[in-house]
Design a protein that fits this description.
The protein contains 8 helices and 9 strands. By secondary structure, it is an alpha+beta fold. Keywords: Kinase, Transferase. Pfam families: APH. This is Ser/Thr protein kinase RdoA involved in Cpx stress response, MazF antagonist.
Length: 318
């Protein structure tokens, strides 16, 4: 997707060493590591067609605010012109560019009980609860362009005719139910929207370092919790998922509720959003699927998700 010269130009805008560039991931294969004065940094190219400059500025203001409130997030890198966001307005993919320090630390290993345990889940919950509690404070004291609402962007207002009618009907029923959920400062605000265990690192002192705030939007806080649970369940054998869910939420919420109090009925909302996440993930991945480049593993995974949805099975079903 990204031509080599465009990536090198983006790197130069942040005074990086071109020869050090290497792609490390991203939904659009748009995240690169590079060196700047011997320091490891991360470069992210964001298609303007996907997200405009104002929304990126909003995200960076939110991240900066969280950092001042004690949330561990990698330091932002300024360009050679002292800008937080640079642009390359050239076809085929005009884009914005941002850069951050590469955080020291490592991904948590779900197969290692000394890392993947109740202590981690409680800490994870406390960090998320702290972020949710800061959402209202941020908007009372900051003037920023609006973020997307829960039903904007992503899969919303897209052509979903590729999906079976029963799947589309289920989506419409879910959206109608979501509209009935109470919306106030305790229940609704800015969420990370992708706070799973591959979007944070553990420092060598055991601190949680967050990254990838590209999906921030207004939503119910219980959805953020359900996303964390949904992805954590992927590390567990199907037959063990019900027991793991109970243990995870007990630990996670014991940390979360130290920082933020939710409306009554939050347990039921998490259960609902856990099932909704399967539906959303399938539609989101199918909407952006490039069949020519998709691996066989990806195709098989999407087929399994589809079959699960068509059978009406729970995320927890064995």
């Amino acid at each position: 997707m990204w031509k080599e010269e465009l990536v090198k130009e983006a790197c130069r805008k942040f005074r990086g060493t071109e020869s050090s560039l290497k792609r490390i991931g991203g939904f659009w294969e748009n995240v690169y590591e590079y060196e700047r004065d011997g320091e490891a940094c991360v470069l992210k190219l964001i298609p303007i067609a996907v997200k405009d400059r104002n929304l990126i500025y909003s995200e960076l203001q939110w991240v900066s605010f969280l950092r001042t409130q004690g949330i561990r997030i990698p330091r932002q890198i300024l360009s050679v012109h002292g800008k937080t966001v640079e642009e390359i307005r050239r076809l085929p993919v005009p884009c914005c560019i941002i850069s951050f320090q590469k955080a020291p630390g490592k991904f948590v290993n779900p197969e290692n009980p000394s890392e993947w345990n109740r202590t981690l889940f409680r800490r994870w919950g406390q960090v998320m609860g702290r972020m949710h509690s800061l959402s209202g404070k941020f908007h009372r004291h900051q003037s920023v362009p609006p973020f997307e609402e829960w039903n904007e962007g992503e899969i919303y207002h897209r052509d979903l005719s590729f999906a079976e009618s029963s799947i589309r009907d289920r989506l419409n029923a879910c959206l109608a139910r979501i509209e009935t959920f109470p919306k106030n400062e305790r229940s609704y605000g800015l969420i990370h929207n992708d706070f799973h265990h591959r979007n944070f690192l553990l420092s060598y002192r055991g601190e949680m370092i967050l990254f990838d705030f590209a999906d921030v939007k207004y939503h119910w806080f219980t959805y953020d919790i359900a996303i964390a649970l949904y992805h954590a369940l992927s590390s567990v054998e199907q037959q063990d998922r019900a027991g793991f869910k109970t243990m995870f939420l007990e630990s996670f919420m014991s940390g979360y509720l130290l920082e933020h109090q939710l409306e009554e009925g939050w347990e039921e909302q998490i259960d609902f959003f856990l099932e909704f996440r399967l539906l959303f993930s399938y539609l989101h991945q199918m909407t952006h699927l490039n069949r020519e480049k998709a691996s066989e593993e990806t195709i098989r995974h999407l087929r399994r998700m589809k079959e699960k949805l068509l059978r009406g099975e729970s995320v927890l079903a064995s």
